[in-house]
Amino acid sequence: MFAKFVTWLKSLFYKKELQACLIGLQNAGKTTLTNALCNDPDRDNTIPTIGFNVREVTKGKVNLHLWDLGGQNKFRNLWERYCNDAQCIVYSYGRWNCFFLFTM
Ligand SMILES: Nc1nc2c(ncn2[C@@H]2O[C@H](COP(=O)(O)OP(=O)(O)O)[C@@H](O)[C@H]2O)c(=O)[nH]1
Ligand SMILES: [Mg+2]
């Protein structure tokens, strides 16, 4: 009970860090979604992602670290490594579709 109270008290003052990985094939819209989540929809997304891009944005009390991972074949073996440390995995399939998987 006391531990829950302390957790609640802490949550009033501290931000929560959330690591989210965006994965999916090339041109699936990962970078576009990342830019949109960072309130930066007009940012140039014509350059293919080499390796990964990491962006940080604060949403309320959550500090969101977005790992926009490259979709090319040569980068896909990196997905597992990054996803292991993430609490949220966003799988983008096709430009209009994605689903969120939380591993908290
Ligand atoms: N029409 C349309 N185009 C999109 C959408 N999302 C992304 N695109 C376009 O699809 C291309 C690839 O998107 P990008 O975000 O770079 O894909 P990524 O390779 O998964 O990072 C870009 O030219 C985007 O402008 C969408 O919802 N609608
Ligand atoms: Mg990209």
From TrEMBL:
GTP binds at residues 24-31, 71. Keywords: GTP-binding, Magnesium, Metal-binding, Nucleotide-binding. One of its GO terms (molecular function) is GTPase activity. It comes from the Eukaryota. InterPro entries: P-loop_NTPase (IPR027417), Small_GTPase_ARF/SAR (IPR006689). Mg(2+) binds at residues 31, 49. PANTHER family: ADP-RIBOSYLATION FACTOR-LIKE PROTEIN 8. This is ADP-ribosylation factor. It comes from Hexamita inflata. The lineage of its organism: Eukaryota, Metamonada, Diplomonadida, Hexamitidae, Hexamitinae.
